[in-house]
Amino acid sequence: MNKNKTAVFVGHSDCPLSVEDIKPFIEQEIRNGVEVFLSGGQGRFDINAAYAVHKLKPKYPHIRNILCVPYHNFRIFDKEIFDEIINPIFSNSESYTGYKTAIPKRNRYMLQSASTAICYITHISGGAYNTFKLAKKKKLAIINISKETEKQNYERSDIMQTKLIAVTADLLTLSYLSRQPGSAYEITGYGTFTERSLYLAL
Prior knowledge:
single chain, alpha/beta, Rossmann fold, 2 domains, 6-stranded parallel beta sheet, two-stranded antiparallel sheet, 6 helices, globular, disordered C terminus
């Protein structure tokens, strides 16, 4: 495994992003030379990121989707999507009692094996945030996609707000016009409004 061509996923278990939301960020890193993606397989971000890699494999057959499990009886959500499943810390004889220390050790292994961390971090608490801090300390390249998606959502919201203000201004102007009941007005880009709908909108 070439560290310089390996990325690790780090994110909150309650991440709202879908597989399709995450795919463009992974594809960009593939174009930047990343070939191996390490997932811990825990929580919504890990799971959707792993599925996103799997969906990109037909287009980029050289990439590898690797699951790093913290202990031998770890529950794997879908074995079929991974090229390899590794247990980097413990042998098969390790029991479930190692759970509390196993996950942080597994996370450190993934960070040591990668040069890039693809993250979804929105709050400063929990295991994902601790791993995120460690990734920064180890000077991995950090791609926090939550900031990008928040920026996109803000831009979409800003555009919609601007359109709403424009529509409201047009409606206010038209509401002062004296027309017969039931007559229609055309507002470019927003469709036709009857006089009744204008007053209801106001």
